[in-house]
Amino acid sequence: MTGGDSSLLAPVTVIAALGIRTAITELRHPGSARRQWAFATHPWATAAGATVAAAMVLISGARFGWAVAAWALLIGALTAFLTGRDTPTATSPAAPSKEQPVSERRTGKVLAAIGAPITLAGVAMYFLPGPGFPVLIIGLTLLITGLAMAAARR
User: pTM of the prediction?
Assistant: First the structure.
């Protein structure tokens, strides 16, 4: 990696693989990405993931630099996934949801809108100081996943 830390390669590769897997699954089965990433809308899961990621950055950020941010993102997402899994019991009734349903197309547009500037920032970081390659990979992953979700027909 040009001027970067090679320890960023592993978490960025895993993050990109998860994004690509989501995009391919969404193309094959429209609506599946929303089910795969449903934990991200669960407030307790999001709080747990953000807490674990923030703790990891605070504890080891000064020592390991940029690599800890990528690992923290990955570990925070894993924590949110494990915390937000729905495990209904036979005795608990299903509570009606008060949330407004969000369409796959709208979610895809949001992901693409987030991925485009991150991709541009990654390209800019090739010429400016910063971790260009990992930011570029994460931005492209968000952009491709968003475009795949926006293009999926229900």
Answer: 0.49
